Amino acid sequence: MTESVIALFEKLVQADPPDDVPVLFDTACVLGGSIAGLLAARVLADRARRVVVLESDDISTATGSRTGVPQDQQVHTLLPAGQRWVERWLPGITKEAQARGASFAGPDKQVTALNGVPQAWDGEDHHLLAIGRPLLESLIRDRVTSLPNVSVLHGRATGLRYRDNAVGGVHHVPAGGDPDVLDADFVVDAMGRSSRLSTWLKESGYDHPRLERLEAPINYATALFERPAEFADLETACALGIFTPDFPSGEVSVAAANAIEDRQWLVMLMGYGDSRPGRTLDEFRAACAELPPVFAAATAGAVTGDVVTYHQAESRRRHFTEVNRFPARLVSVGDAVASFNPIRGQGMSSAALHASCLASYLGGSPELGTAAGEFFRLQQVVVDAAWMVSAGGDAARLDALNGTEVPKEVRRQRWAMEQITVATLSDGDVTRAFHDVSYMLRHPATLADPALLAKAVAANEGGSTK
User: Fold this and answer.
1) Which three-class secondary structure state does DSSP give residue 128?
2) CA angle 242-244-246, nearest 5°?
3) DSSP state at residue 344
4) Is the whole model's pTM more than 0.85, yes or no?
5) Same domain as 338, residue 190
6) 5 is a domain residue
7) Is the separation of the CB atoms in 238 and 231 below 8 Å?
8) What is the pLDDT of residues 125-182, one digit of tens each?
């Protein structure tokens, strides 16, 4: 089972657009113009004569922040898995992002450090796309909505219409208009963490997915600073600092600095629980001064964007595979399915892989008269992988801070993960396996390899320097 999950995950990461496919739908509707919704619309553009993206924010000319994305001013990095998938489906978008000032940082421009000690180089040429979320979203939106059969409808979805136990339309209120119904043969819920789909399903007599919540209170503070150096002249363009509870980093558990567009540094500090680092500019700079030098350097320039805070109380996931009575021709993607601690950087890449699940499902001659169980089974592979890395790490951190007693098996698993994490500071082979998972290129089950754990333990005991 584990091997098949690993293989399936890698297949979804590597999925290419189809060459010549049959049209399955007359009209498909995507509820939400987020990155998850836009990428789903890109997939549906190959399968529907018409794709309508229904979005409550006016995105016709939007280039800045959107009300529907409260975290968009925080640090966003497109991981290798997400970047490769998006590039295959929207060719040239990475160069377009670079032309707009984003940093496409190779290993020579990246630093990930645990308690101030950098990880060993893994020998791979993995690149991270450091970019402001509003810019990336606008680039994807421009590409997707330029497709001849994709359009945007400014309005608010209010419910679904059904026909023969399948979705047949979307009730909505257009901006400045009267309530209306959009006929649709396939609907994608991309309404985010606060998706109203479960309420609609319950009201219509259908089952709704169980909502799992993991308490993981996190507090972000992010600010923008002038960056005098060109990307080519930077020693580091993407820096990530992780600090264990016993490390003297004040209230900071994680820090990140990205060289983004408009010659700016986007710097973020994160704390767990009651820790709220850097709520003012003076506090922010003072906290960075206690961290590795790259953070003090990144915050030395003039401030171009005041400190913006963000609080998230919990990680969430909705278990669609457990639902029995569910309408056909309806799926959910992105944060409407699962949302994690944003510091792991998995949100945008997960959205890309959810779109890959949709492409795989639609390309597999699906039985469209029944619920999309195969889609949700594919998607669960992606959600499980992200949840294991993000929510699992948060739970371990909070249990350590709170002194929570955990079962023996959980302690063993966390000990193994700690051995691998520490070994990334000295052994490049372990770093490679760790990066493959954290960059969403491979499934976390690959880290359970006994040989890898033995190598990590040996590196920690003997100080391997690969």
Assistant:
1) strand
2) 145
3) G
4) yes
5) yes
6) no
7) no
8) 999 999 998 899 999 999 999 999 999 999 999 999 999 999 999 999 999 899 999 9
